[in-house]
Amino acid sequence: MFTGLIEDIGKVVRWQSKAKAGRLTFSTRLSPRAMPLGASIAVNGTCLTVISKSQARLTVDVSPETLARTNFQDVDKGHPVNLERPLRFSDRLGGHLVTGHVDGVGTIKEITRRGEFTFFQVRVPVSLMRLIVVKGSIAIDGISLTVNDCARGLFSVAIIPFSMKHTNLQSRRVGDKVNIETDLIGKYVQNLLKSGGSR
Fold it and tell me: Which of helix, strand or coil describes residue 189?
């Protein structure tokens, strides 16, 4: 479990494709002592497992299911990735509950600046739109954000200067693919309504 508060921006060092899956190595300023082998880490909002590490690099495996649901298909050497270590139960929950289980991929349709703030408009599949509500929580590439507006397959978020500086949104452009995780509570409510309130 994560909070959506990004701790570091890593850089992709190597991407190895293998049988519809992959292995990702990235640089990081996070302490390797704090990331033992087998530990979880959120990479662009995707919960992955550390399988090897060196002084300033971590390597994770990307399963076929993860590759199919995320923007790792577009990853390349040098690309910035958002990193967050798992939430400890003793931590304050500064963002919102983020599982690291990406629901799908959105596409950045528009980026506009208004004063110090940057507004991102993102297009998502209809299946995800049902779980996105105004003032609800959403994670974009693992970043905990609040939905400003949503309609017709689009939603928008306002990014404060701090988040622009400390996440990979600073390098995002129109047309880029981003990982989307909708609100956990909304998923359970939708499932409950589908089942008619009983199982």
Answer: helix
Q: What is the largest CA-CA distance in the chain?
A: 52
The pLDDT of 35-42, averaged and rounded, is 94
Tell me the pLDDT of the chain averaged across its residues: 92
Task: Look at the alpha carbons of 74, 104, 25, 83 in this order and tell me if their dihedral is positive or negative.
Answer: positive
**Percent of the chain topping pLDDT 90:** 77
pTM: 0.92
- How many residues make up the chain in this entry? 199
pLDDT in tens, 132-144: 999 999 999 999 9
Collect all residues with Cβ–Cβ distance below 8 Å to 149 and sequence separation of at least 6.
134, 155, 156
Q: Measured between alpha carbons, how far is 141 from 133 in angstroms, rounded to an integer?
A: 18
CB 60 within 8 A of CB 75: no
CB neighbours of 119 closer than 8 A, spacing ≥ 6? 110, 111, 112, 113, 148, 156, 157, 158, 159
Burial (CB count within 10 angstroms: exposed 0-12, middle 13-18, buried 19+), residue 65: exposed
